[in-house]
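Practice problem: predict the structure.
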Amino acid sequence: MSSKYQVPNVDRALTMMELLKENPKGMTVTEMVGKLGFSQTSVYRISMTLLDRGFFMRDDKTKKFRISNKLFSVSTASTCDVNIAEAAAPSLRQLRNSTKETTLLGILQPEKGRGVSIMEYPGLHPFRFVHDIGEPIILHVGAPGKALLAFLPEDEQNEIISRLKLKKYTQHTITDKAALKKELATIRERGYGAGLGEWMEEMHCISAPVLDGHDYPVAVIWITGPATRMTIDAIPALGRKVMSCAAEISKQIQNEII
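Answer:
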């Protein structure tokens, strides 16, 4: 039954999402127009809007649009009313107490090509790094951004990387996309990310993803501290602690959803 309050463009956008869900290999604007009978201008504008918002992805070569996994994270949060920060707080606090280093939680903003920090527990050492809540997470620099990228589905990862400008901050910053992809593969296999002086020479950080029931990285946790304390030799043991904390948070979120 049609409602008099129906918004045509919203209805078209949802219809296009349903069509792409049924065609996981993707479709061009022309193909969608042929299937749906909408105007080419309307399909193009809606597709580009959903692309900008991170709900669609587009292959630069074939120009085919595909639906992204962002819907999974949105539906997970809205349907189950899971507050990631609230769920993460006890485990983050315990990780901070265990490592004595500043401990943080962040989420991905794929449409903006960055992440953002949403929670912080300052370190317990007299000298510690702080990271303002709401501060952007640069995806190619340091542990948290790389962990978010590493655990994304490959097509979504590629789409985000294609839009990144790999600005150099220190001599350790990755500025080559092939090198970044290789680093992301290592992080995914190892289970945690490490940032060793990539944004600031004196700062090291270690991260691990928080995964939902679809193994999608809905958040990332990380610890950060001076290189003199978080030495190369200490990284593996700290990495295991961060991974364990992230797994606890992931399990809690997934249990809440179930």
